[in-house]
Specification:
This protein is an alpha/beta fold. Strands 14, 16, 18, 19, 21, 22, 24, 25 and 27 form a 9-stranded parallel sheet that branches. It is built from 7 helices and 27 strands. α4 crosses α6 (187-195). The chain starts with a strand and ends in a 6-residue tail after the last strand. It has 2 domains: 2-225, Spore Coat Polysaccharide Biosynthesis Protein SpsA, Chain A, CATH 3.90.550; 232-316, UDP N-Acetylglucosamine Acyltransferase, domain 1. 19% of the residues lie in helices and 34% in strands. β4, α3 (56-65) and β5 form a beta-alpha-beta unit. 45% of the residues are buried. It binds guanosine-5'-diphosphate-alpha-D-mannose (GDD) and magnesium ion. Guanosine-5'-diphosphate-alpha-D-mannose binds at residues 6-9, 23, 51-53, 77, 80-83, 86, 102-105, 138-139, 153, 165-166, 168, 188, 211, 213.
Length: 322
């Protein structure tokens, strides 16, 4: 079976981090987002097709250097074709039922149970659905007896027809391709409303689900995974450092500081005397000087925070000033 991962978005909501790293390669607990998806695939998936566009070279070189245990094929779009156009562009690989993923979603969905559900209920496709309090930032599905009867993409506040959202994981029959025209096509806005009568089913699940496309949701995903027990502590130098709550620290230098909860610090990063870091990520080699207060931040690879700085809710990269 093939799994198609939509990985061509520009990741605008994670800029400036995504100016240098395509969103699928943004590390979450030290592993690229897209690898969290690939690692969760059932055994029957032997080929991963990545629909790429933005920063395709970086993705190519990642998969050349890292064997993920499955065949990986990259399909390029000269210009982004939208989520529907990207699927159509990969059609040469999609000759039987396939899994399809938004490349920026982390979830506890049991894919084997999800595929069973699709096989049992038939129809052109099945969408994984997740319940939220405010669905306005997502695709919204109204269900009747397991079938989706209405789909709205990002309804304006107060107009959503349900609180079940499209979790960005699909099982599709190849027939879907007959309903996607040439050029730029949005799967959610243009295709879903058209194929409802072909039998589009919903599969609601619980556990955890996070779209990692914004600073807030990325940090949320990180907290969820850390709380789920993906806890690594490997600290190179820890003089007078206080670790608070669950964290993910791997090859980090700490000195008389206060770290946590929900901090991920990757190899080569450091936090110096008198600093406090809470609910943030320090990517490879990021450095926090002395007497800093860092909360709800992404510090990209090699980012440096000078002594005495306070940062709240910021994305900082190498070379940007703080
Ligand atoms: N290849 C390719 N080409 N991929 C694309 C393109 C494109 O033109 N545009 C977007 N993608 C990829 C993104 O990289 C991402 O992995 C996925 O498609 C979804 O795009 P986002 O830009 O992240 O969409 P969203 O988060 O606003 O909304 C989508 O996800 C929600 C769940 O997280 C929709 O599918 C919503 O319905 C859904 O609720
Ligand atoms: Mg998204």
């Amino acid at each position: 079976m093939k799994a198609l991962i939509l990985a061509g978005g520009a990741g605008t909501r994670l800029r400036p981090l995504t100016n240098a790293i395509p969103k699928p390669l943004v590390p979450l607990l030290g592993r690229p987002l897209v690898m969290h998806i690939i690692d969760s695939l059932p055994k029957e998936v032997d080929t991963v097709v990545l629909a790429v566009s933005y920063m395709k070279g970086a993705l190519e070189s990642y998969f050349r250097q890292n064997d993920c245990g499955r065949k990986v094929v990259l399909i390029n779009e000269e210009e982004p074709l939208g989520t529907g156009g990207a699927i159509r562009n990969a059609r040469q690989y999609l000759d039987e039922m396939f899994l399809c993923f938004n490349g920026d979603v982390i979830s506890s969905l049991d894919l084997t149970a999800f595929l069973d559900h699709h096989r049992r209920h038939g129809g052109i496709g099945t969408l994984a659905l997740w319940r939220v309090a405010d669905p306005s930032a997502f695709g919204v599905a109204k269900m009747l007896n397991g079938r989706i009867t209405e789909f709205q993409e990002k309804p304006s506040p107060g107009t959503a027809v349900s609180d079940l959202i499209n979790a960005g994981t699909y099982a599709f029959e190849p027939e879907l391709l007959d309903h996607i025209g040439d050029g730029f096509v949005s799967l959610e806005r243009e295709v879903f409303p058209k194929i409802l009568e072909r039998g589009l089913h919903g599969y609601q699940f619980t556990g955890h689900w996070v779209d990692c496309g914004t600073l807030e949701s990325y940090l949320n995903a990180q907290s969820v995974l850390i709380d789920d027990g993906e806890d690594v502590v490997c600290v190179q130098r820890q003089e007078g450092a206080r670790l608070i709550g669950a964290n993910h620290l791997d090859g980090v230098t700490l000195s008389h500081c206060r770290v946590g909860p929900h901090v991920c610090a990757m190899r080569g990063s450091s936090i110096m005397d008198g600093s406090t870091v809470e609910r943030s990520v320090l990517m490879e080699g990021a450095q926090v000087g002395k007497g800093c207060v860092i909360k709800d931040c992404i510090l990209g690879p090699g980012a440096q925070v000078k002594d005495g700085q306070t940062l709240n809710g910021e994305i900082l990269v190498r070379g940007s000033s703080a």
